[in-house]
Amino acid sequence: MNQVIIEYKDGDVTMRNAGFYNQLQVHGIQFTSIQNFTAPIFPGTHIKILDNTKLETLKSFTDVETGFQNEYIMSSSPTSPIDD
Question: What is the pTM of this model?
Answer without folding.
Answer: 0.43
